[in-house]
Design goal:
single chain; alpha/beta; 2-enoyl-CoA Hydratase, Chain A, domain 1; six-stranded mixed beta sheet; three-stranded parallel beta sheet; 16 helices; 48% helix; ECH_dom
């Protein structure tokens, strides 16, 4: 079983158990998680849910996009469409669960790993946590509801930090996750087993009260020195303007950030920014719907197979994108894919 589910006292326990693949989610795992949540939703003996990842290296490294690529190349794109549709439905079900849902992020959590953690009521990080949405390097787009939660980060009213994380795929650690509200508690890795034992004995609230450390122990947020520059740059309305602002800045951080963006898939960058702009005025459900529309469109394009090849299959990091430049991407075509944001008021 790649997803283990059991009860410990009044806690429903979920464990992603595919450590050789860094607990990457495949369709069977998504269905296993959904089945357990649906079962426990109306079970009065289960008061809350806790999810962890096996193996010690990763909570969950994301969705299994290699399998999605293989389906597309085999002419079975509908299998990939089903994967994303069921994954996003799971994300929505987690957010709507009428019981506490606690994710313990110890290790890597990328892409789909954030989809099965960030929508919960409590998100615990250890000093080994590493969070990222790396999809723009894959010819894909940040998804799993990220265009909602990255548009509503703590202390980021303009959404600039969320845009920075989504477009660049930058990794952040526990300190940044706590500062941005992606995480709610910091627990040292060597205390996780005790936290889980106590959660089963007396519930997660009491266990967290005992084992959660001062967030300051997670260290200084790595993004803190760059927040002003991120705000000044990523508040721009188009990817082209973001790149122009970076080029005009002339410092090492700006040059490095511009270089990172220029490696990414141009179409993915434009799609991600349009999704994020829509997400700022949308509900999570609306964001998930738009992400699914974008996902189905993107996986049918050559850039998806090429990006996954370059990053995860051949690992040469030399993707050939079409179109090759951001200013060649038709943003209007992308906007036409999306459900219009609701009117203000």
């Amino acid at each position: 079983m790649k997803v283990r589910s059991w009860t410990d006292g009044t806690v429903g326990r979920l464990e992603l158990d595919r450590p050789a693949a860094l607990n990457a989610l495949d369709l069977d795992m998504i269905r296993g998680l959904r089945e357990a949540l649906d079962r426990w939703r109306s079970d009065d003996d289960v008061a809350e849910v806790v999810i962890t990842g096996a193996g010690g290296r990763a909570f969950c490294s994301g969705g299994d996009v290699r399998a999605a690529r293989e389906a597309v190349l085999a002419g079975r794109a509908e299998l990939a469409d089903t994967f994303f549709a069921e994954e996003y439905a799971l994300n929505g079900a987690i957010a709507e669960l009428p019981k506490p849902y606690v994710a313990v992020i110890d290790g890597v959590a990328m892409g789909g790993g954030l989809g099965v953690s960030i929508h919960g009521s409590a998100r615990v990080v250890t000093e080994r946590a590493a969070l990222a949405m790396p999809e723009t390097a894959l010819g894909f787009t940040p998804d799993v509801g990220s265009t909602y939660f990255l548009s509503h980060l703590d202390g980021d009213p303009a959404g600039a930090v969320g845009r920075y994380l989504a477009l660049t795929g930058a990794r952040i650690g526990a300190a940044d996750a706590l500062a941005l509200g992606l995480a709610t508690h910091f627990v040292p890795a060597n205390a996780v087993d005790a936290l889980l034992d106590d959660a089963g004995a007396e519930g997660t609230a009491a266990a967290l009260a005992r084992h959660a450390a001062d967030p300051a122990e997670a260290g200084e947020p790595s993004l803190a020195p760059y927040r002003d520059r991120i705000e000044a740059t990523f508040s721009a309305g188009t990817v082209t303007e973001i790149l122009e602002r970076l080029d005009d800045a002339g410092d090492d951080w700006a040059a490095g950030t511009a270089a990172a963006l220029r490696i990414m898939c141009p179409t993915s960058l434009v799609v991600a920014l349009e999704l994020l702009k829509a997400g700022a005025a949308s509900t999570l459900g609306q964001c998930l719907e738009n992400e699914l529309r974008a996902a189905v469109w993107l996986i049918a394009r050559p850039d998806f197979a090429e990006g996954v090849r370059a990053v995860l299959v051949d690992k040469d990091r030399k993707a050939s994108w079409s179109p090759a430049r951001v200013d060649e991407v038709d943003a209007e075509q992308i906007r036409a894919l999306l459900v219009p944001a609701p009117a203000a008021g």
